[in-house]
Design brief:
It is a single chain. The chain is of the alpha/beta class and 292 residues long. It has a domain at 127-290. It has 4 helices and 8 strands, in the order αααβαβββββββ. Strand 6 (251-257) and strand 7 form a beta hairpin. Helix 2 (78-93) crosses helix 3. The radius of gyration is 19 Å and the shape is elongated. It starts with 40 loop residues before the first helix and ends with a strand.
Length: 292
């Protein structure tokens, strides 16, 4: 996996979606600012719709499969979402959709509203570079199952010039670059996937990473689910175990910020990003997740 900017999850549904809303499918991340490179359907809105709307609001669904959603209210294409965005925004603003217990955070409403107000952009031209096509597939679910070759020696850096330290306490900003998945494996809601977006490929542990990078995971299958997070001020991002249950491995990942996209095209099954993306790099990875 590599780096992105801005963690956003939108729960959108229009009209009566019946009882088909899963209470765990809620936004848990608060995003204070709009992504600096703008908002587009392809990079921000479509993944949200796939995560939280199209179980009811998809043109391919008919009858009972729509869980009460009107036949005309669909959010599975750019055209239909463009047309229905104003009505959907009003439903969200009035807290009518999605029905309880799901909810939409203020930051999610802000992002969707900004997409509307800035012209409902479809897909931006971006510079795309595959930075992990040579990384072999590692088909293990936990890092402890992996072989553990010694990292090739490299000159360690800290591109940001700042570090997290123990005095800052624990929390979402702690230990950038460290193995969050293993450390949190005993939590009541362990991390299913986690990593850090760093400023350079060889930044050392605890070096502050890059925030507001969009990180997405795309599952397998005919209609793959896509989930999106945004790196926090330490560069960290994570999904708890209940947030990835719709992702069918193997998966691919990509990061984006400021019009630059980097993609992992070699499918992977291990969701622990630091299993490969250490400061020196393991299993063919070039080093850290980085957009540089």
């Amino acid at each position: 996996m590599h780096r992105f900017a801005a963690s956003v999850v939108l729960l959108l549904a229009l009209s009566a979606c019946g009882e088909k809303v899963d209470p765990v499918q809620q936004s848990t991340d608060v995003v204070e600012d709009i992504p600096p490179d703008g908002i587009s359907w392809c990079r921000h809105i479509e993944p949200m719709m796939k995560n939280f709307c199209t179980d009811c609001h998809a043109s391919s669904l008919i009858g009972p499969a729509r869980n009460g959603a009107p036949a005309s209210a669909n959010f599975d294409t750019y055209a239909s979402t463009f047309a229905g965005a104003d009505a959907a925004q009003k439903k969200m603003t009035d807290s009518l959709m999605p029905p309880p217990p799901a909810r939409i955070f203020t930051a999610d409403k802000k992002l969707f509203g900004e997409w509307i107000s800035t012209g409902r952009r479809e897909c931006d031209p971006v510079v795309s570079e595959d930075i992990t096509s040579d990384v072999p597939t590692v088909d293990h679910s936990v890092v402890s199952d992996l072989p553990n070759p010694t990292d090739t020696p490299v000159d360690l850096t800290c591109t940001s010039g700042t570090f997290w330290n123990e005095s800052a306490g624990n929390g979402e900003l702690m230990r950038p670059g460290a193995d969050c998945v293993t450390c949190h494996s005993t939590n009541s809601l362990p991390f299913a996937a986690a990593g850090t977006v760093m400023g350079g490929l060889h930044d050392q542990d605890n070096c502050t990473g890059i925030d507001r990078v969009a990180v997405s995971i795309k599952g397998s299958g005919a209609n793959p689910v896509i989930v999106v997070k945004v790196s926090n001020p330490s560069g960290n991002f994570y999904w708890e175990s209940n947030e990835l249950r719709q992702i069918t491995p193997p998966y691919t990942a990509r990061i984006s910020a400021n019009g630059v996209v980097r993609e992992m095209t070699s499918p992977q099954s291990n969701f622990n990003c630091t299993a490969c993306h250490t400061a020196a790099g393991k299993f063919g990875a070039p080093g850290r997740i980085s957009i540089q």
